[in-house]
Amino acid sequence: MQDYIVIEKNITIPEIDKHSLKGVSKGSKYDFLSRLEIGDSVSINGNTPNYSPKAFLSSRSYFKKRYKRDFEVRVLEGSYSKPTKVRIWRTK
User: Fold this and answer.
1) Residue 18 pLDDT
2) CA 72 to chain centre
3) Which of 91, 35, 82, 37 shows the shortest CA–CA distance to 60?
4) Is 42 exposed, middle or buried (0-12, 13-18, 19+ CB in 10 A)?
5) pLDDT tens-place string over residues 31-89
């Protein structure tokens, strides 16, 4: 099985676009996040098998509760309502 998720270090977190924020909902199957160390990040785009940028983006609060760690998520491409690429950082 090929690993499509690449954990990266030292990727700067961009400022959040507060004009495009909407509600955050529950997420699902992201157990690889438990392996992230502080400062590590992962990006998800439309070509990442089995992962949706939209679902990934809307799962931040779920990740924090489930993994008892702090995460920041940003839209890198597309809009908040229709992201095509997102990145999540472990911050604490």
Assistant:
1) 57
2) 7
3) 91
4) buried
5) 788 889 999 999 999 888 888 899 888 888 888 888 888 999 999 999 999 999 999 99
Beta strands in 6-52 (DSSP E): 8-9, 40-45
Cα 11 from Cα 14, distance rounded (Å): 9
β strands within the chain, DSSP E: 8-9, 40-45, 71-78, 83-90
CB 90 within 8 A of CB 39: yes
pTM of the predicted protein model: 0.67
